[in-house]
Automatic annotation (TrEMBL):
Belongs to the bacterial ribosomal protein bL31 family. Type B subfamily. The keyword Ribonucleoprotein applies. This is Large ribosomal subunit protein bL31B. It holds the Pfam family Ribosomal_L31. Part of the 50S ribosomal subunit. GO terms for cellular component: ribosome. The gene is rpmE2. The keyword Endoplasmic reticulum does not apply. Keywords: Ribonucleoprotein, Ribosomal protein.
């Protein structure tokens, strides 16, 4: 690796507020906020909105979306024009 061109990788705590979960990993991101971790050391902490602990794909839960309303609105707007061309 060339010296002085790569960002510094350091241990960072990412905290998912939605699931109330935190995990320690390496990252180039930095933060002014610090948190004391289980090993007694303090690390920068970065709050995230979603992680694997709260994402519907990983948790197996799904959110209800109004897809029927969206489909009906799409068909009202473009359905007649698309069928008239064919």
């Amino acid at each position: 690796m060339k010296p002085r061109i790569h960002p510094v990788s350091r241990p960072v705590v990412f905290r998912d507020r939605a699931a109330d979960v935190a995990f320690l990993t390496h990252s180039t991101a930095d933060s002014a906020q610090r948190v004391e971790w289980e090993d007694g050391n303090t690390y920068p902490v970065i709050d995230v909105e979603i992680s694997s602990a709260s994402h519907p794909f990983y948790t197996g839960t799904s959110r209800v979306l109004d897809t029927a309303g969206r489909v009906e609105r799409f068909e009202r707007r473009y359905g007649t024009a698309a069928s008239a061309r064919n």
